[in-house]
Model the fold of this input.
Amino acid sequence: MKKLATAAALIVVLAAAQAMAVSAGKSVEWNTSMGKVTFKGDDHAGKGLKCNECHSKIFKMKKGSTVMKMADINAGKFCGACHDGKRAFKSAGNCAKCHKK
Done:
């Protein structure tokens, strides 16, 4: 019985974690002082990326739990881990690719 309860709890936790991620076909938006940023799951999934490549290695799974600053991104943290001009477009100097006024 204890194993069944543990398995059920694990399923609930995994389902909740999956629900918080932005999957293909979904997007998440947030407002910044530079304009609205929209993260599109399709754009990243279309490049062959899997959710676990960023979650929870780079980003926490809960929306709003990661505080990002452009200085950190430009230094290779958060989005900048890939958006470095090699793997994906460089974040520095490409503001309008993400920030829409």
Summary: The CA atoms of residues 24 and 45 lie 6 Å apart.
